[in-house]
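for the writeup, i need someone to sanity check this before i put it in the appendix. the sequnce is what the collaborator sent (i think, or maybe the updated version? ugh). structure was predicted straight from it, no edits. if anything looks off just tell me and ill rerun, i have time this weekend
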Amino acid sequence: MLSLSNVHLSTAVLLKPIFLHGLSGFLHLLLLVAVVLSWVWRKFTAGPGDESKKKPNNSLFKTTVFSSLALSAFNFLLCFINYFYWYTSGWSEEKLVTLLDLALKTLAWGVVCVCLQKAFFSSGQRRFSFFFSAWFTFYLSVSCYCIVVDIVVMSGRRVSLPTQYLVSDAVSTCVGFFFCYVGYFVKNEVHVDNDIQEPLLNADSLESKETKGGDTVTPFSNAGILSILTFSWVGPLIAVGNKKTLDLEDVPQLDSRDSVIGAFPTFREKVEADCGGINSVTTLKLVKSLIISAWKEILITAFLVLLKTLASYVGPYLIDGFVQYLGGQRLYENQGYFLVSAFFFAKLVECLTRRHWFFRLQQVGLRIRALLVTMIYNKALTLSCQSKQGHTSGEIINFMTVDAERVGVFSWYMHDLWMVVLQVTLALLILYKNLGLASIAAFVATVIIMLANVPLGSLQEKFQKKLMESKDTRMKATSEILRNMRILKLQGWEMKFLLKITELRKNEQGIPLESGKILSALATFRTLQEPIYNLPDTISMIAQTKVSLDRIVSFLRLDDLRSDVVEKLPWGSSDTAIEVVDGNFSWDLSSPSPTLQNINLKVFHGMRVAVCGTVGSGKSTLLSCVLGEVPKISGILKVCGTKAYVAQSSWIQSGKIEDNILFGECMDRERYEKVLEACSLKKDLEILSFGDQTIIGERGINLSGGQKQRIQIARALYQDADIYLFDDPFSAVDAHTGSHLFKECLLGLLCSKTVVYVTHQVEFLPAADLILVMKDGKITQCGKYTDLLNSGADFMELVGAHKKALSTLDSLDGAAVSNEISVLEQDVNLSGAHGFKEKKDSKDEQNGKTDDKSEPQGQLVQEEEREKGKVGFSVYWKCITTAYGGALVPFILLAQILFQALQIGSNYWMVWATPISEDVQPPVEGTTLIAVYVGLAIGSSFCILARAILLVTAGYKTATILFNKMHFCIFRAPMSFFDSTPSGRILNRASTDQSALDTDIPYQIASFAFILIQLLGIIAVMSQAAWQVFVVFIPVIAISVLYQQYYIPSARELSRLVGVCKAPIIQHFAETISGTTTIRSFDQQSRFQETNMKLTDGYSRPMFNIAGAVEWLCFRLDMLSSITFAFSLIFLISIPQGFIDPGLAGLAVTYGLNLNIVQGWMIWNLCNMENKIISVERILQYTCIPCEPSLVVDDNRPDPSWPSYGEVDIQDLKVRYAPHLPLVLRGLTCKFRGGLKTGIVGRTGSGKSTLIQTLFRIVEPTAGQVMIDSINISSIGLHDLRSRLSIIPQDPTMFEGTVRNNLDPLEEYTDEEIWEALDKCQLGDEVRKKEGKLDSKVTENGENWSMGQRQLVCLGRVLLKKSKVLVLDEATASVDTATDNLIQQILRQHFSDSTVITIAHRITSVLDSDMVLLLSQGIAAGLIEEYDTPTRLLENKSSSFAQLVAEYTMRSNSSFEKSDDH
C-alpha cells in the first residue's frame, strides 16, 4: 500500500503546475547556458577567415525569426499580466515558479531570435545545429506533456486551471512542431555576402562598385527582423528621394515571390490543375487559386488583424477602471501605473499589427493584380479570331487596367467581413460588462443595420456591372478614334465623334449618380461609428470585385485558337511544305457557307506560289489558313517547317527600327546588312538622324506606308524561316521599289525557300512555279502562267484588266519604248544610279529632326513627360473650384464641423448627465437624458447625409468638367500631337486617371478635411481635461510634419513613376492585340509574354515601395502619438485626486485612444491625397495642348456653294513639320485647273503626301499660300475647308458600328442616297446579302470586310459627299487591277466635272489624267520637276516621267523568271 501511495504521490507531483513550470524553466535555462558557452567558445577559437557572413535565404527563414520574436513577446505579456494580477492577490510558491518560467522563456526566445538572425545555429546543409535540433525535440516533448496534463486536469475537474496556462501550453506545442519541422526537414540555403561570389555581369561592375537601386533586389527580401518591424528597409530609398528626383533605375527590383516572373508559372499550373485548363476556369476556382498563391501572407495578416482587434479593445475595457481610479477607488498600490502600462502596451501592439497588416495586404494586392494582368495578356495572345471579334481591344485593355486593378485593391478589404463580426462581438461583450442586459438593445440595433446593408449591397453590384459595361464602351470608342484621328480630321468628323464620346460618358455617369444616392443612404448608417463604419465600404467593394472577377473569368473562358487546325510536321520529315486536302474553312462557324470551300493544294519545298483573284475572293484567308488562324470545318492541313508572315496592313511595334527587324533574334551583322540591302532600307536609314536606332512612333506613325511594309519584309527575311507567306506587300511601295523587292527578296534571298505570295500585280505572276486563281472562296484555277493564259477565264479576266490599264501606252512608238527599256535595263544592272535614291516620305522629315545624330531631342516619340517636384497648389485649387466655382466646399465643411460638434456634444452630455457612481444623484431625469442624446444623434445623421449629397454632387460635376475639357483639347489637338504621343498615354489618362478622379480624388480631399476637423475636435476635448498635454503634443506634431516633409518627395515621385510605368503596359498590350497573327506566325508568344511580365514588374516596383514608404511614415507617426497618449495618461494619474472631473478625464482618454489612429490617418490621407492628385495633374496637362486653328471663322465663311469651280492655285508653298525641322516643300508653285484630273507622282519622300496634308491644313504652310476658287484656305475655318473637300486615303478606314454610320457618320443623307452610293461603288449586292442590310454590323477596324471592300466603302463616302475637289492618296494600292479599273471608271463617270488629284504608285492610275505633276527627290525634294500633260511628257524621252513609265512597262512585260545567278 505504501508503494502504491508513493506512486499516487509522484503522479500527483508530475501533474502539478509547479513541476511543469519548473521543468520548462530548467529547459530554457539550459538553452541559455549552452548558447552563452557556445558563443564564448566561438569567440576564442574562430580564425580571421571565418568572418564571411552567411545569411540563410530559405523562404521559411523570416517565419522562424518572426515566430521566436512573437513567442518572446507573448511570454513577456503573460509574465507582465500575471505579475500585476498576483501582486494584488498575494504570492505563492507556484506563482513565483510560473513567473520565473515565463521570464526565462522571454529571455531564451529573444536570444533564439538574435541567434537565428545572425545564423548562429546554422550547420552545413541543415537549418539548425545538432544541439539545437535535439533541444527542440525535448522542448516539443515537454510542451506536448504539458498540454496533455492540462486536458487531463480539465476533463477530470480535479483542479481549476487558469486559462493562461492552457493558452501558453497550446502556443508552445504549435511552435515546437514548427521548429522541429524546420530543424529536421528543411535544407539550408545560404546567401554569401562575398564579392568573390558575385558574377561579373557587365564591364561596368569593374569600373564602379556602386550599383543603382534598379540593379539590386529590394532590401525587404534580406532585411533583419527589426528592419522589417520598423520598415527601416525602405529608408535608403526615401533618403535617395530626398537628395534627388527618383527615377525608375533608383527603385530596387522586386523579390522573386512578388515578381510576376517568379510567381506566375506556379499560379498557372495551379489554375490548370484545378480547372483542367484556363478555358474552364470559374470565378470560385480563380478566387481559390489567387488565395493559394498568397496563402502565407493572408494567414499572417489574419493573425495580425486578430491581434490588432484584441489590442484595440484593451483600452475601452480598461477605461471604466481608469475613471474609477481617478474617482478615488484605488484597488492596489501602483494601479495607475499598471493601467498606463497596459494602455501603452496595447497601443504599441495595435500600431505594429495595423502597419504590417496594411503593408502585407498591399503586397498581396500587387501580386494578385500582376497575376491577373499576365493571365489576361496571355489569353489575348491565344484568342481565336471569332472570340476576338466579340471583344475589342479597348474592352480587353479595360479588363487589365480597371478590373485587375480593382481585384488587387480588394485585398485591403479581405479580412473586413469577419473582422466586423469580431469587433461587434467584442464591443457588445464590453457593453454587457458595463451595462448588463441593456446591451441587448445595442445588439438588436447592430443586427438591423447590418441587415439593412444587404439589399443596398446587391443594388451596388448591379450598378457596378452597368458602370463597367459603359466604361468598356467608352474606352473602346476612344481607342478606335485615337487610331483613326487622321481620317477624322481629313473628313472634318472629329467634333461629331467627340459628341459620341461625351454621350457615352453621360450614360456612364448616370449610373454613379444613382449609386451616389445609395452611398449617401449608407453614409447615414455610418454614424454608428467604428465597427460598422466600414461595412458599407466593404459590401460595396465586394460587389465591385465580384463584377470584375466575373468579367475577367468570362474573358478567360472564351475559345482559344484551335491547335488541331494545322498538323505541324518537323522540318525534313516530308518533301511537301504545305498540303491541304478537301479543306473547308470559315471565319464564322455559324455561317451556312464556308469562307473557303473545297481547297486542295500541294506545295513542295522551294516552290514559289502566287495567289491572285478579285477583291474579297479569299486570298488573305488562304494565307491565314496556313497560319492556323481560320477555324477548320473539315479536311486536312499539313505544314512542314517554320513560318514567317508579312501582313497586308503593316504591323510595326513602337521602338527602334533595329528591334523591329531583329524581332527577338540575335544580331548577325552580315545577315542584317544583306536584309537591309534587299529591302531598300539603307538609304532610308541614312536619312534618319538615328539610323536604325530611330524610335518608331505608335503603329509606325512616323514612317511612310512603303517604309513600314519594307520593315515588315525585312523582319520576315531576317527570321530565316522555311516557309514565307506574303500578303500583297508590294502594293504599298512605288513601282520601282516593288520591282527591286521582288527581285532581291523573292528571287534573291529567298530563292531556295518556299514562298506563297498574294499579289494584285500581274507582272509578278510569271515568276511563280504555281499560280492559284481564287474566286468566291474557291481555287478556280491553278497552274503555271503560260498554261493559265491559254485555259482560264478567271485568270484571263485579271490579265485582261492589267492589259487594259496598259493600253493607254499603245499610242507610243514601239521602237522608242524598247530603246527606253534597254537603257533602263542597263541602269538596273548598275544598281540603278537614278532609281535607288529612295528618300524618306514627308512624314519621315518629321522624325529625322536634325542632322546631328547625338541629339536626343531628334526622336519623334519622347519619353513621357512627368512633372517634377511638389504638386502645385494650383492643381488642388482647380480641383476644388472646378465645380460651381467651389461654392459647395464651405457647405461640405460646415456639415462636417456641425457633425463633429454634435458628436462631441452628445458625448459631453452623456458624461455630464450620468453620475460617476450609484450613490450620486443624477442631474437630469433618464427620459431627458435619452431625448437629448437621440436629438443630437439625429442631428449628426442629417449632417452626414447633407455632407454625402453635397460631396457626390461636387465630385460628379468636377469629373464631368475636367473630362469634357481634356477630351475637347485632345480632339482639337493638331495631328503632330497624335504622331508623337502613343495612344497608351492618352488612354491611360482617359481610363486610369479619369477613374481616379471619378471615384477617389474628391473623396480623398474631403476625407483629409474631415479627419483634420476630427483631429482638432480630439485636441479640443483633450485640452479641456489636460491642457498640459500640449507641452508634448506640439513638439510631436512638429516632428510628425518634419517626417512627412522628409517622406513626401520620394512618395510623390514614386506615384508619378507608377503613372509613367502604366502606359507602356497598356501600349504593349494594345500593340499585341493588333499584331497577334504576326506574333503567332513567328512563334514569338513566349517572348511577348516575358516582355509583358517585365513591364508589369516595372509597374509593381514603385507600387511596392510606395506601400513600404507609407507604412514607414505611419509607423513613426503612430509611435509618436502613442508616446503623447502615454504622457497625457501619466499626467492624469499624477495630479492630486479631485483636481479634475473624472468623467471629463475619461472622455479625454476615450478620445485619446483614437488620437494616434486619427493623426496617422490624417498624415496618411495627406500623403495619399498628394499621390492621387497626380491624376488630376496629368489630366490638366492634357487640357493645355495647343489647339488647331478655329473650326469656323464667323466673319469669313465661304459661300455654301464653294468651291463651285474647284481650281486649286498653289503659290510659293513652303512647308515644314516643326520650327526646328528642314523644309519638306521648298517653294512650290502650280495651278490645278478646275474640273481637270491631275496625277501627282514622285519617288518616296518627294513630298506628295505633304502637299495633300497642306491642302487639308493637317500641316500649316510656313510660307506661301493655297487658293481654292480665289479663297485663301488659311483664312477660313478648318471645318468649312475639310467638309468641302473629299479624300480616299491610303489606309482604308472603317469604324465599329453599322454600314450606315460608316458611310454617313454625320447622318446627313437618306437611305435611298446611301443605297445609290453603294450600288455605284459595286457594294450594293454585297450589303443586301447581309442580314441587317444597312444596319449590318461592322467589327473593330472593319475586320469583317476585306481590304479591297473597305477601300470601296471609302469610295462610297466620297460619292455621297459629291465634292468639287477630290483627292486620291494611293487609294487603289490594296485592290487588284480589275477593281482599280472599276474605281477609275466610277470616278470618270461621277466626278467628270470635279477637280481630281491622284497620288499613285501605279503609273496606269495617272496615265489617263489631264495633267501630271512630278515632284523631284533627293536634294531638290519638295520642288516641281515636271508639270505637263502625260502625252507631252511621254513624247520627251528624256523626261523623268517617261523613264518611270518605261520602267513600269518593262517590269510588266518582263516575266521575273527564275534567273541563273540566284
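The mean pLDDT is 76. The radius of gyration is 39 Å.
thx in advance!!
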